[in-house]
Specification:
Elements: H1 13-16, E1 42-45, E2 48-54, E3 61-69, E4 72-76, H2 83-95, E5 102-106, H3 112-115, H4 118-125, E6 128-131, H5 133-142, H6 152-161, H7 165-176, E7 189-190, E8 196-199, E9 202-209, E10 216-221, E11 226-230, H8 252-264, E12 271-274, H9 283-308, H10 313-320, H11 327-346, E13 351-354, E14 360-363
Parallel strand pairs: 4-5, 5-6, 6-7, 11-12
Antiparallel strand pairs: 1-2, 2-3, 3-4, 8-9, 9-10, 10-11, 13-14
């Protein structure tokens, strides 16, 4: 039986001499000290407050924003569905909003840290929810735990990726114990790409991004050059971009990179209000850095396949993401590895085939006689 790619004897040269993962080093400016996650706020522009909600995980906070909206306030994102988050919202509403009510809620996307308290805020403050269509229905999807047993098509997705049944069950059993699952909001108002949303005296353009989630809403104010970026543009970490079993042939990295390019068309001196880490300026530099990060990952996978030959997504994931802390990390790393392989496959740089064991294997396309193998990606993005 072949040795696991994680064993030293089986490790290819690409793994033993794995290049240092690009560290975020773009020249960004951080004009504000972040608020502490205890109900404090920082005013980043007149009538725009920045607060933080704590999260009990490695990424220990989410940024939320409060926008003065005439005789009330509009909130952007919510925090996790936890008692501590609800207590902080009560505190902020009582002490930071000049006695004015929360009237509207914008959720940038469906993930639990962004929309986990949407139903509660709607009920508690009689607020109206604004989301994109795709994100609202993904939120409804995420409200239920994964079925037990897993649907056969979903099981097959991970088996073909190279995992065994025990590994798959270990991943999904942790999701079934999800303590953050949110209640479902019963209505919403739809936001579409290009819509204009008036909040107080400001006009915001809806800019929809794809890849991290189906129809992620960003809001851009062109006159003051302010971007409410959600998870589409973070200053020092990269958002997960996954292929999931309900869209097994998706190419989300193509959508993600195209979305970054759309953000790159905004003004360079835009003040970026992200969902995690600090408020910053340096939009173009960060977009270029994110492109470089993904192209480094593409190059790693191509060199690994050149050196070791055909491999499953599970084997390649362990080279691409060697430091994982548990089943949730395995789930995200697997989805992201398949996303990178899908992009390469759609570019014609790798091919996929089903072996006799029912596993998808990836390999470099066969070269014509006398041809020189190459995987220069420098021309795929200017």
């Amino acid at each position: 039986m072949a040795e696991s790619p994680t064993s030293p004897a089986a490790a290819p040269a690409a793994e033993r001499a794995r290049p240092e993962r690009l560290r975020a080093s773009a020249d960004l400016a951080y004009p504000f000290e972040p608020p502490t996650p205890d109900g404090a706020v920082v005013e980043v522009a007149p009538g725009i407050l920045w607060a933080r909600m704590p999260m009990p995980m490695a990424l220990d906070h989410i940024n939320v924003y409060l926008l003065r909206d005439g005789d009330g306030w509009t909130v952007v994102d919510t925090g996790l569905n936890l008692p501590a988050s609800r207590e902080l919202w009560e505190q902020i509403a009582a002490t930071r909003l000049d006695g004015l009510p929360i009237r509207r809620l914008v959720c940038t996307h469906s993930h639990h840290d962004h929309a986990g308290l949407a139903a509660w805020i709607m009920e508690r403050f009689d607020a109206e929810l604004f989301m994109s269509y795709g994100e609202y229905f993904m939120l409804r999807h995420y409200a239920a735990p994964p079925p037990d047993p897993l649907p056969a098509l979903h099981q097959s997705f991970y088996l073909r990726a190279g995992q065994d049944a025990e590994q798959i069950e270990h991943m999904f059993s942790s999701l079934r114990r999800n303590a953050f699952a949110p209640p479902v909001p019963q209505s919403y108002r739809r936001l579409r790409d290009g819509d204009r949303l008036t909040i107080g005296a400001r006009q915001w353009q809806v800019v929809v991004g794809e890849g991290h989630s189906p129809e992620h809403v960003c809001l851009y104010n062109a006159s003051e050059r302010i971007l409410l970026a959600g998870d589409q543009l973070l200053p020092r970490i990269t958002s997960n971009v996954l292929v999931m079993p309900f869209e097994p042939e998706g190419n989300p990295l193509q959508l993600w990179l195209a979305s970054l390019d759309r953000l790159n068309a905004l003004a360079e001196d835009t003040l970026v209000l992200p969902s995690h880490q600090g408020v910053f300026r340096g939009l173009h530099a960060r977009v270029q850095e994110l492109h470089a990060h993904h192209h480094q990952q593409f190059d790693l996978l191509l060199r690994t396949l050149d050196e070791r030959g055909p491999a499953t997504a599970w084997e390649l994931m362990q080279i691409q993401f060697p430091k994982r802390r548990g089943p949730m990390d395995d789930l995200m790393a697997m989805g992201e590895a398949i996303a990178h392989l899908s992009w390469l496959r759609h570019q014609g740089l790798v091919r996929r085939w089903l072996d006799d064991d029912g596993r998808h294997r990836f390999e470099r396309p066969r070269q014509a006689p006398g041809a020189v193998a190459t995987h220069d990606l420098s021309e795929t993005h200017e």
